[in-house]
Amino acid sequence: MEEARKVHMGKRPVPSPEESTELAESAWAIVLFCVGCGAAAGVLLPLLARLLLKLPWAPLEGPAELLTSIPEPALTLGTVAVGALGGLLLGLAAAHESLSVRVRDTHLALTIRDSTREFTREEIAVLCRDGKQLVVLAPDGMELAREECGLPWPRLADALAGHGYRWAQEDPYRAEFRRWVPGTPGLPEGADALLRARAQARKSDDDAEDARELRRELLRLGVVVRDEGKRQYWRLVSGDVSG
Fold it and tell me: Residues 19-46: pLDDT tens digits?
Protein backbone atom coordinates (compact mmCIF):
# COMPACT_ATOMS: atom_id res chain seq x y z
CA MET A 1 0.00 0.00 0.00
CA GLU A 2 1.30 3.40 -0.91
CA GLU A 3 2.51 5.36 2.11
CA ALA A 4 1.47 9.00 2.17
CA ARG A 5 2.56 11.88 4.36
CA LYS A 6 -0.38 14.17 5.03
CA VAL A 7 0.48 17.72 6.05
CA HIS A 8 -1.99 20.06 7.73
CA MET A 9 -1.65 23.72 8.50
CA GLY A 10 1.17 24.30 10.96
CA LYS A 11 3.18 21.19 10.05
CA ARG A 12 6.11 21.34 7.68
CA PRO A 13 6.25 18.72 4.87
CA VAL A 14 9.34 16.58 4.52
CA PRO A 15 9.23 15.32 0.93
CA SER A 16 10.77 11.95 0.16
CA PRO A 17 11.29 10.34 -3.26
CA GLU A 18 9.95 7.01 -1.92
CA GLU A 19 6.58 8.30 -0.79
CA SER A 20 3.92 10.83 -1.67
CA THR A 21 3.48 14.15 0.11
CA GLU A 22 -0.02 15.45 0.71
CA LEU A 23 -0.84 18.98 1.80
CA ALA A 24 -4.37 19.70 2.94
CA GLU A 25 -6.15 22.23 5.07
CA SER A 26 -7.80 20.77 8.16
CA ALA A 27 -11.54 20.57 7.51
CA TRP A 28 -12.19 20.68 11.26
CA ALA A 29 -10.13 23.86 11.61
CA ILE A 30 -12.05 25.53 8.78
CA VAL A 31 -15.44 24.55 10.21
CA LEU A 32 -14.59 25.49 13.79
CA PHE A 33 -13.23 28.86 12.68
CA CYS A 34 -16.42 29.65 10.76
CA VAL A 35 -18.64 28.47 13.65
CA GLY A 36 -16.66 30.66 16.05
CA CYS A 37 -16.99 33.68 13.77
CA GLY A 38 -20.72 33.05 13.38
CA ALA A 39 -21.23 32.74 17.14
CA ALA A 40 -19.25 35.94 17.72
CA ALA A 41 -21.43 37.75 15.20
CA GLY A 42 -24.47 36.42 17.04
CA VAL A 43 -23.20 37.92 20.31
CA LEU A 44 -22.61 41.31 18.67
CA LEU A 45 -25.94 41.47 16.83
CA PRO A 46 -28.13 42.43 19.84
CA LEU A 47 -25.55 45.01 20.93
CA LEU A 48 -25.55 46.52 17.44
CA ALA A 49 -29.37 46.59 17.36
CA ARG A 50 -29.51 48.48 20.67
CA LEU A 51 -26.87 50.91 19.45
CA LEU A 52 -28.85 51.63 16.28
CA LEU A 53 -31.97 52.45 18.30
CA LYS A 54 -30.06 55.10 20.27
CA LEU A 55 -29.21 57.03 17.12
CA PRO A 56 -31.49 59.91 15.99
CA TRP A 57 -31.93 58.17 12.67
CA ALA A 58 -30.81 54.67 11.75
CA PRO A 59 -31.34 52.23 8.88
CA LEU A 60 -33.23 49.02 9.64
CA GLU A 61 -34.89 50.62 12.67
CA GLY A 62 -37.93 48.35 12.36
CA PRO A 63 -35.96 45.06 12.38
CA ALA A 64 -33.79 46.39 15.23
CA GLU A 65 -36.87 47.15 17.35
CA LEU A 66 -38.32 43.73 16.61
CA LEU A 67 -35.06 42.05 17.54
CA THR A 68 -34.62 43.91 20.84
CA SER A 69 -38.23 43.18 21.82
CA ILE A 70 -37.15 39.59 22.54
CA PRO A 71 -36.26 39.26 26.24
CA GLU A 72 -32.83 38.21 27.44
CA PRO A 73 -31.22 35.71 27.64
CA ALA A 74 -33.37 34.26 24.85
CA LEU A 75 -32.29 37.02 22.47
CA THR A 76 -28.55 36.48 22.81
CA LEU A 77 -28.85 32.70 22.96
CA GLY A 78 -30.96 32.75 19.82
CA THR A 79 -28.66 35.03 17.82
CA VAL A 80 -25.62 33.01 18.91
CA ALA A 81 -27.32 29.77 17.84
CA VAL A 82 -28.36 31.21 14.48
CA GLY A 83 -24.86 32.68 13.95
CA ALA A 84 -23.18 29.38 14.84
CA LEU A 85 -25.49 27.47 12.49
CA GLY A 86 -24.74 29.92 9.68
CA GLY A 87 -21.03 29.56 10.42
CA LEU A 88 -21.35 25.77 10.34
CA LEU A 89 -22.97 25.84 6.90
CA LEU A 90 -20.37 28.30 5.64
CA GLY A 91 -17.56 26.20 7.10
CA LEU A 92 -18.82 23.01 5.47
CA ALA A 93 -19.03 24.81 2.13
CA ALA A 94 -15.52 26.24 2.59
CA ALA A 95 -14.12 22.82 3.51
CA HIS A 96 -15.78 21.35 0.42
CA GLU A 97 -14.10 24.04 -1.71
CA SER A 98 -10.66 23.68 -0.07
CA LEU A 99 -7.81 22.32 -2.17
CA SER A 100 -5.54 19.41 -1.26
CA VAL A 101 -2.40 18.59 -3.22
CA ARG A 102 -0.80 15.14 -3.40
CA VAL A 103 2.69 15.01 -4.88
CA ARG A 104 4.76 12.07 -6.08
CA ASP A 105 7.83 11.97 -8.28
CA THR A 106 5.73 10.53 -11.10
CA HIS A 107 2.49 12.50 -10.86
CA LEU A 108 0.57 15.24 -9.07
CA ALA A 109 -3.06 15.13 -7.92
CA LEU A 110 -5.35 18.03 -7.05
CA THR A 111 -8.52 17.31 -5.07
CA ILE A 112 -11.33 19.85 -4.70
CA ARG A 113 -15.14 19.64 -4.58
CA ASP A 114 -14.96 15.82 -4.16
CA SER A 115 -13.15 15.61 -7.50
CA THR A 116 -9.54 14.61 -8.13
CA ARG A 117 -7.50 15.50 -11.20
CA GLU A 118 -4.15 13.83 -11.81
CA PHE A 119 -1.30 15.01 -14.03
CA THR A 120 1.81 13.05 -14.93
CA ARG A 121 5.24 14.51 -14.44
CA GLU A 122 5.70 14.79 -18.21
CA GLU A 123 2.49 16.83 -18.60
CA ILE A 124 3.69 19.54 -16.19
CA ALA A 125 6.24 22.19 -17.10
CA VAL A 126 5.86 24.49 -14.09
CA LEU A 127 3.58 25.26 -11.17
CA CYS A 128 3.15 28.81 -9.95
CA ARG A 129 1.23 31.14 -7.72
CA ASP A 130 -1.12 33.75 -9.18
CA GLY A 131 -2.56 35.74 -6.29
CA LYS A 132 -4.48 33.21 -4.20
CA GLN A 133 -4.57 30.64 -6.98
CA LEU A 134 -2.38 27.66 -7.78
CA VAL A 135 -1.70 27.37 -11.52
CA VAL A 136 -0.40 24.27 -13.31
CA LEU A 137 1.10 24.86 -16.77
CA ALA A 138 1.96 22.44 -19.57
CA PRO A 139 5.14 22.75 -21.70
CA ASP A 140 3.19 24.43 -24.53
CA GLY A 141 1.77 27.07 -22.17
CA MET A 142 -1.65 25.41 -21.84
CA GLU A 143 -3.17 25.91 -18.40
CA LEU A 144 -3.87 22.48 -16.92
CA ALA A 145 -5.43 23.77 -13.70
CA ARG A 146 -6.15 26.99 -11.83
CA GLU A 147 -7.61 26.62 -8.35
CA GLU A 148 -8.05 28.75 -5.24
CA CYS A 149 -5.42 27.62 -2.74
CA GLY A 150 -5.36 28.22 1.01
CA LEU A 151 -2.25 26.13 1.65
CA PRO A 152 0.98 27.73 2.96
CA TRP A 153 2.82 28.72 -0.22
CA PRO A 154 6.40 28.14 1.08
CA ARG A 155 5.52 24.62 2.22
CA LEU A 156 3.78 23.84 -1.03
CA ALA A 157 6.82 25.10 -2.98
CA ASP A 158 9.14 23.01 -0.78
CA ALA A 159 7.05 19.87 -1.29
CA LEU A 160 6.99 20.32 -5.06
CA ALA A 161 10.72 21.05 -5.23
CA GLY A 162 11.40 18.02 -3.05
CA HIS A 163 9.79 15.83 -5.70
CA GLY A 164 11.58 17.58 -8.56
CA TYR A 165 8.83 19.84 -9.89
CA ARG A 166 9.62 23.31 -11.18
CA TRP A 167 8.08 26.13 -9.12
CA ALA A 168 7.68 29.81 -10.05
CA GLN A 169 6.64 32.63 -7.72
CA GLU A 170 4.36 34.08 -10.41
CA ASP A 171 2.78 33.06 -13.70
CA PRO A 172 5.51 33.22 -16.38
CA TYR A 173 2.84 34.27 -18.88
CA ARG A 174 1.36 37.05 -16.75
CA ALA A 175 2.65 39.83 -19.04
CA GLU A 176 0.81 38.27 -22.01
CA PHE A 177 -2.67 38.62 -20.52
CA ARG A 178 -4.88 41.33 -22.03
CA ARG A 179 -8.07 42.68 -20.55
CA TRP A 180 -11.20 41.45 -22.27
CA VAL A 181 -13.91 43.81 -23.43
CA PRO A 182 -16.77 42.81 -25.74
CA GLY A 183 -15.58 42.67 -29.33
CA THR A 184 -11.87 42.38 -28.46
CA PRO A 185 -9.91 41.58 -31.67
CA GLY A 186 -7.48 38.67 -31.88
CA LEU A 187 -9.66 36.05 -30.23
CA PRO A 188 -10.47 32.73 -31.93
CA GLU A 189 -13.95 32.38 -33.39
CA GLY A 190 -16.52 31.81 -30.65
CA ALA A 191 -14.25 32.93 -27.79
CA ASP A 192 -15.80 36.37 -27.46
CA ALA A 193 -19.28 34.88 -27.01
CA LEU A 194 -17.95 32.48 -24.35
CA LEU A 195 -16.30 35.35 -22.50
CA ARG A 196 -19.55 37.32 -22.62
CA ALA A 197 -21.42 34.35 -21.15
CA ARG A 198 -18.75 33.83 -18.51
CA ALA A 199 -18.85 37.50 -17.49
CA GLN A 200 -22.58 37.12 -16.93
CA ALA A 201 -22.17 33.85 -15.00
CA ARG A 202 -19.57 35.39 -12.67
CA LYS A 203 -22.11 37.97 -11.47
CA SER A 204 -23.84 35.28 -9.42
CA ASP A 205 -22.34 32.77 -6.99
CA ASP A 206 -25.05 30.33 -8.08
CA ASP A 207 -23.47 30.23 -11.54
CA ALA A 208 -19.93 29.45 -10.34
CA GLU A 209 -19.99 26.02 -11.97
CA ASP A 210 -21.13 27.60 -15.26
CA ALA A 211 -18.14 29.97 -15.09
CA ARG A 212 -15.79 27.01 -14.54
CA GLU A 213 -17.34 25.12 -17.46
CA LEU A 214 -16.99 28.16 -19.73
CA ARG A 215 -13.33 28.44 -18.71
CA ARG A 216 -12.84 24.85 -19.88
CA GLU A 217 -14.59 25.63 -23.16
CA LEU A 218 -12.23 28.59 -23.70
CA LEU A 219 -9.22 26.37 -23.01
CA ARG A 220 -10.40 24.06 -25.79
CA LEU A 221 -10.16 27.08 -28.10
CA GLY A 222 -6.64 27.81 -26.86
CA VAL A 223 -7.68 30.79 -24.71
CA VAL A 224 -6.45 31.02 -21.10
CA VAL A 225 -8.47 33.21 -18.73
CA ARG A 226 -7.58 34.79 -15.41
CA ASP A 227 -9.75 37.01 -13.23
CA GLU A 228 -9.11 40.18 -11.27
CA GLY A 229 -12.23 41.16 -9.39
CA LYS A 230 -15.02 41.26 -11.97
CA ARG A 231 -12.57 41.78 -14.84
CA GLN A 232 -11.47 38.99 -17.19
CA TYR A 233 -8.02 38.82 -18.78
CA TRP A 234 -7.04 36.46 -21.56
CA ARG A 235 -4.06 35.13 -23.52
CA LEU A 236 -3.56 32.63 -26.32
CA VAL A 237 -1.72 29.37 -25.68
CA SER A 238 1.83 29.75 -26.97
CA GLY A 239 5.44 29.45 -25.97
CA ASP A 240 7.49 27.00 -23.95
CA VAL A 241 8.14 27.16 -20.21
CA SER A 242 9.67 23.72 -19.86
CA GLY A 243 13.25 24.90 -19.88
Answer: 889 998 877 788 898 899 999 998 988 8
